[in-house]
What we know:
The chain is of the alpha/beta class and about 475 residues long. The protein has helices at about 75-85, 100-110, 130-140, 160-175, 185-200, 205-210, 215-230, 240-255, 265-270, 295-305, 345-355, 360-375, 475; strands spanning about 1-10, 15-25, 25-30, 40-45, 50, 55-60, 65, 70, 85-95, 120-125, 145-150, 180, 235, 260-265, 310, 390-400, 420-430, 435, 440. Helix 8 (about 240-255) links the parallel strand 13 (about 235) and strand 14.
Amino acid sequence: MKTVISGGTIVTASETYRADVLIEGERIVAIGTDLSEGADRVIDATGKLVLPGAIDVHTHMDMPFGGTTSCDDFTSGHVAALHGGTTMHIDFSTQPKGGSLQDGLDTWHAKADGKAVMDYGFHMIVTDARPEVIEELDSMVEQGVTSFKCFLAYPDALMVDDDTLFAVMERASANGGLVMIHAENGQVIDTLVKRAVAAGDTRPGFHYRTRPAALEGESTERAIALAKVADAPVYIVHVTCAEAVDAIARARAKGQKVWGESCTQYFYLTQDDLDRDGFEGAKFVCSPPLRTEADQARLWEAIRRDELEVISTDHCPFNYEGQKTLGRDSFAGIPNGIPGIEERMGLLSEAVWEGHLTAQRWVEVTATNPAKLFGCYPKKGTIAPGSDADIVVWDAEATHTWSKETTHSAIDYTCYEGMETRGVPTHVLSRGELMVEHGQLTDAATPGRGQFVKRRPFEFERPGEFVGPVEARETAHA
């Protein structure tokens, strides 16, 4: 089948220009002018932006955590993602304690098989690095799982010690893996949490009070130091604060192979949301926690200056009723995680209007850099002949008000209730198939059509360049 996206303004990480896009089957075959002749379907994109489908490299679908399981599976989560303009994600498979990496990977393949609506990949969370497990890291790379996550938080659940982290880093240095770090000092946090609970300080706001930014900064510094000794590339996930950004920036300035991501919530929500009346703050409990407006300003600066390269979501949704309320008696019992896979692109479209990003940088941090860093570029993450036809037609002028009623995740709330943003997807294509049209899911968007993306080993390159402040919204959306 031949599809043409006609008359739109194509935005990639490096260019903005008007052209048609010709799609045959699953891939883009040509970009040019007057390509509509003989097409089976023409999508009129006049006056709209044509973007590569966004990639969310930090999600947790159907993940057991904190005595419950995240409420989106690989169907409901994908439906939400597609409605928001995301056409691929990379989820975290988890090694079971005492088990093998293969056990974890097989479990997550089973979660996705027959349910996936869009394409996906897997990272591997390492929880127990016995010698035979370190050997398994090579097999993961061969199977296209080329990134390994280590938690420096959540003692007795996911946290690893420095010996384990260093062993993973050394192996990744040799086999082409990229090591991902959840950087918080879990042992000290555990002490602070126990102290707060003992003192009767149990409301949701004590989540951020017991996870101070200084401990995220310390943990980031420690992980970067170990990576330097191991000569391993390292990617710090969900950076929230100036302390962590500054640690990454210093290491990069010295030429170390360090990258960083933040997540949408850290740009738009603050620790004040955790202090909302009653138990409402539980909706905003995630780790690391939301920070201050000063930290938000530092994050925007870091994105513009290429000190951070990716904005993801850490989509890990738990319903307020029945899941978040497990911690009604103490913040320590609230499942850590919030939704965001659908909201990300709309919120960042608003950021373009506000002058935080250019349209090209928006594409770069949500699609192109994720694809480059995680081994699926140029198959994904750009609009070019030969690339998969994962494409979003974006109406930058349209407005949207976020609410539970206008989102598609299985969760019973959105953190952005009542917020109005500018920019909505009108058409979302996954490998050439139209998934969403004017806010409606199409018949093609069926569970089981999504494919596992086998990713390449990590290739050391600096994915972004310095991006200065945006001068005017008209320039950004021209």
